[in-house]
Amino acid sequence: MSGHYEAPIREPLILGDKTYHDITEDIARPIETKAGKLWWFAFYIALVAFIYGVGCIAYTIGTGIGVWGLNRTINWGWDITNFVWWVGIGHAGTLISAVLLLFRQKWRLSINRSAEAMTIFAVVQAAMFPCIHMGRIWLAYFVFPITNQFGTLWPNFNSPLLWDVFAISTYFSVSVVFWYIGLIPDFAMIRDRAVKPVTKKIYTILSFGWGGKAKHWQRFEEVSLVLAGLATPLVFSVHTIVSFDFATSVIKGWHSTVYPPYFVAGAIFSGFAMVQTLLSVVRKVCHLEDYITQKHIEYMNIVIVVTGGMVTVAYITEFFIGWYSGSRYEDFTYFSVGAATGPYWWAFWLLILCNVLIPASLWIKKLRRNFLWTFIVSIVINIGMWFERFDIIVINLSRDYLPSAWTMFQPSFVDVGIFIGTIGFFSVLYLLYARTFPVIAQAELKTIIKTSSEGYKKHHLENEHH
User: Fold this and answer.
1) Which tens digit of pLDDT belongs to each residue from 207-242?
2) Contacts of 81 (CB under 8 A, 6+ apart)
3) How far apart are CA 310 and CA 355, in angstroms?
4) Among 46, 92, 143, 396, which residue's beta carbon has the most beta carbons within 10 A?
5) Nearest CA-CA partner of 301 in 229, 242, 381, 235
6) Nearest to residue 110, comparing CAs of 453, 407, 461, 459?
7) Contact predicate 82/265, CB 8 Å
8) Spatial separation of the C-alpha atoms in residues 418 and 169, rounded to whole Å
9) What's the N-to-C CA distance of the chain in angstroms?
10) Using only C-alpha atoms, what is the Rg of the chain?
């Protein structure tokens, strides 16, 4: 049992004198009880935003891409910005689940379920934008290598947009399987506690006959490790491929070898910030303060500080290389003197404020462990990361090589409406998920109760003292 020993000086990951039964009751409560007024208020707001976004999408498909704010120079604008932003948000879930599982990090158990769900819902939002951007969404199947019964279609495998299709579909499928496999023991728990026959039947189907036998747990752990091994390379490959949309072009400011690691670090940075936002809400609404503790928040903030440092170094590198090259065209890229002082100066300085200056406050331990400040910073970071993608796309395209092609980008109400709609859709999915699925992996959390809970730590200390 020495391998399960945990030093008593470490802060507990489960607060209070919790028993196995207490964990089951606390995590099953949001599913088995009626939703409160706060949940319904948030759900109605999210639903209204979602319906408005659906209306804007229908208007776009029925009228054409001309209803967006695109023009002859800026043919990528608000939509691709949102696409890259949502893909980045979806990164943290797989990192928390897969990479931290392989490294046997116990603190992941209270947050991995929410992170995995966030990944799936974020990728769903991201996948919509390339389809809508095609204009003729009913021909979206052209991007797949389909058979010649449909005619002699030859998808261009050299196109980075086709790489996106393969990367995101692979990432989504592995994430869904990984998420669902982890839920099976929890579905069985809800099944065994269900009172209504319909509820019991639904969770019986979802739990795949889980009985909690030793053989079941052995297979569960083996499959989890295999999926974690498959998913870990995806953490780095997916956003690397998304960066190739820009890096393989010959457009100034995009044709850069720093983009793959820079995009990956930025994706983890924004993804962890979104997890912090969701956890701050779930912790209060579902009354999970004993399971999502200051220690969890601090560990997450440490990852944010590290990846934020990587992003800052990339910013400095881009700015310095652009200046050192002496090329006049580099002065119109998203990280240059021209960007800082030109017509998009406000977007440039918002990026610096939200991604560099404010997150730097998390170096202070007192602020790093503060729930309210963490919630504020997490929202600020995602605002900053959206402006980073906006700057990369719009500033670089707005200043072409010929001054006669220079132009400004003005988003239309449809651009803004579709983005608001995806935020509403994401919120609707997450709120429904929190009411139907356990938001914490209770079966796995019980495995650390004798080493990492406050009650058992006190018990061990008393025994050592006697």
Assistant:
1) 888 887 888 888 888 888 888 888 888 888 888 888
2) 386, 389, 390, 393, 394
3) 11
4) 92
5) 381
6) 453
7) no
8) 22
9) 21
10) 24
Q: What is the DSSP string of 44-112?
A: HHHHHHHHHHHHHHHHHHHH-GGGSS--SS--S-HHHHHHHHHHHHTHHHHIIIIIHHHTT-GGGGGTH
Q: Which helix (H) or strand (E) holds 273?
A: helix 259-285
CA distance 393 to 73: 11
Strand partners, 453: 14
Structure tokens at 292: 């999502």
pTM exceeds 0.90 for this model: no
13 vs 191, 441, 456, CA distance in Å? 27, 14, 11
Kindly tell me the burial class for residue 272, based on how many C-beta atoms sit within 10 Å of its own C-beta (0-12, 13-18, 19 or more).
buried
Quickly list DSSP for 177-224: HHHHHHHHHHHHHHHHH--SHHHHHHHHHHTTT----HHHHHHHHHHH
The helix/strand/coil state of 329 is: helix
The pLDDT tens digits for 272-313 are 899 899 888 888 887 888 888 888 888 889 999 999 999 999
| 145, 156 contact by CB (below 8 A) | no
Pair of tokens at residue 217: 């747990």
For residues 92 and 274, the answer to whether their CB atoms sit within 8 Å is yes
Cα separation of 399 and 396, whole Å?
6
pLDDT at 327: 78
Rounded to whole angstroms, the Cα distance separating 379 from 176 reads 26
Q: Any idea how long the chain is?
A: 466
CB atoms within 10 A of CB 27: 23
CA dist 115 and 133 (Å) reads 28
Residue whose C-alpha is closest to residue 265's, from 136, 381, 412, 132: 381
Contact 86, 118 (CB under 8 A): no
